[in-house]
Design brief:
Elements: H1 2-9, H2 11-32, E1 38-40, H3 53-63, E2 75-80, E3 86-92, H4 98-115, E4 122-125, E5 129-134, E6 148-151, H5 159-178, E7 185-191, E8 199-205, H6 211-223, H7 225-228, E9 234-238, E10 242-247, H8 276-311, E11 313-314, H9 328-331, H10 335-341, E12 350-353, E13 357-363, E14 369-375, H11 383-394, E15 404-410, E16 413-419, H12 426-430, H13 441-461, E17 465-467, E18 476-478, E19 484-486, E20 493-495, E21 501-503, H14 516-521, E22 523-525, H15 526-542, H16 559-568, H17 585-598, H18 609-617, H19 632-648
Antiparallel strand pairs: 1-4, 2-3, 3-5, 4-5, 6-9, 6-11, 7-8, 8-10, 9-10, 12-13, 13-14, 14-16, 15-16, 17-20, 18-19, 21-22
Helix pairs in contact: 1-2, 2-8, 5-6, 13-15, 13-18, 15-17
Keywords: ATP-binding, Glycoprotein, Kinase, Membrane, Nucleotide-binding, Phosphoprotein, Receptor, Repeat, Serine/threonine-protein kinase, Signal, Transferase, Transmembrane, Transmembrane helix
Organism: Cucurbita moschata
GO molecular function: ATP binding; protein serine/threonine kinase activity
Length: about 675
Amino acid sequence: MVWPRLMCSSPSLYLGFVIFLVSITWQRMATSQSDFEYYNCQNEQGNYTANSTYKANLDHLLSTFTSHRQIDYGFYNLSYGQDREANAIGLCRGDVGPSDCQTCLNNTITLLIENCPTQIETIGWYDECMFRYSDRSIFGVMEPSPAVFSWRTRNASDPERFTQAARNLLESLTSEAAAGDSRLKFAAGDAEIPNYWPIYGAVQCTPDLSANDCTNCLLGAIAQIRDCCDGKMGGRVGRPSCNIRFDIDPFIQNRPESAPPPLNLPNTTTTTTTPQGNSSGIVVFIVVPLIVVIIAAVALIIISIFLKRRKLKSYSAQNLPEDEVINAESLQFDFDTIRVATDGFSDENQLGKGGFGVVYKGRLPDGRSIAVKRLFQGSKQGDEEFKNEILLVAKLQHRNLVQLLGFCFKHHERLLIYEFVENSSLEKFLFNPIKRERLDWKTRYSIIDGIVRGLVYLHEDSQLTIIHRDLKACNILLDAEMNAKISDFGTAKLFDYDQTQGNTKRIMGTFGYMAPEYAWNGCFSVKTDVFSFGVLILEIVSGQKNNRAQTNKEIEESLVSLAWRSWGNGNALDIVDPCLRNGSRMEMGRCIHIGLLCVQANLGARPTMSTVLLMLNNGSFSLPTPSQPAFFVNSAASRMRGQSQGHNETQGLNYMSISELYPR
């Protein structure tokens, strides 16, 4: 009864109350929209101080960035200052109008300042814009990283056909975008697949790139679809210099040619001279439809925002979203279901045993094959801590990582459920004289590439900076197509966002693959995994284990030592596996070169995994001369073989396990 009384006795009060409610709703909506899809403070580029010249230049640049009203084409590239110049780039999606573009960029600037208050170089993405700044020259330079990936959670019914059609569409748009001018390099279109969904796509570069750099950037982004969005019904790859997107729903707006004319509302001021009853009736007649329209509009906007947020699932955000689809309930399996699936954890279903538990093959009631890791008892972890760590690792989704499907625990039993990988581990093939014949050079090179891509994701592109710490041949699984999948995260460390290295008194991993700074001092970083990868790539090329390299000498020599000695004598290819009768000798030599760069004793001289990926896929990339590797591995293995043999000797599959993880 309150609403009719308000409406009749005090229409102005009622209208004010409605406006207040609408303003509250809009405020909440604005708050909900203020979350980044992704941002990166790029701590490795350093920090500035409060009284520095760079801060003064940056403050001036950011405060006036979108005030240049003559820019109505969605691209800003501005600088300010002479000494310690501040440079910034803002890019809006090609279909976004000037007003929305400026709003998006201003929001991005505000949140970057809040989240990266002292970082010299930062970058942030919304759905409709990208903004970055730095003290170095960033104009006209093609930069592929850091990158952001988003994808639909739903898979296409014919994933190969759908993904190929999406790639074809984006590639066809690339030339159109690259041919754009200095104001806009953007192209959008769609493609029809017979008896299937239509696909909508868009590609864009920062207009300061040359046509060739734009093409290369876009083609590189399209190639990354395989890493994030393979088989998904929608996906997006964002790079500092370009971005691509495809989806089964249209997402491009029709950019208005001009602003719409102002709405002519009835002049209600004349009603003030009418009698009170008449005035109330007229106000009610005007206000009620207006209220209905406002409420309907707000409801539609809220629904559209909700649907839009559900449509794409971003995994490169710095902070884990509160409304993440993945939760403990969706990942938890019933213990009895798993027990039945593995035939009571029977010995016949045992696939292998690792350092953290026994792995069994199982089959769920729906017919899916799974691998179940039954963790050894004795963990001091609580149930909630265990579940939280599961949720963190379950967010890792990459074609070159073994996928965690879920978990269950009952009393002292803790089980991890993974996708089943058909061809067991790389070790079972690589060091078996019969099975090794199946690993021709094309297959080995593909395995190396897959391992590199998986490590780049763990180190740079996932929500969490993850150091594996036990990378070796038995922890690389091979699927039915012999694609590599990194497994066994039992020794992994998850870094805080601004952390670049760590220290531990509990050395975990396998001697022979450990970097010297980790084995002796407990210091680890991404370069720890780089060292292990260097040993692994030498093993893949040679077909020999690092601590069992075959030489003409009577004493045992590590593979790293043998490779270094052969390199120094100009005979690097002498270590190549004799089984590799065909294949590119140049690629083999390049892989040996990369391996030696990765095992250098000086961790600062080792390349990052993203650099290794560039070295592998760009033959014109000049490789530096490696320095002497760490020779400690052979003697360390000899001294500690007795006390670590049970842990080091691989007995079978090692699927991902959880131990000592902490969120970024």
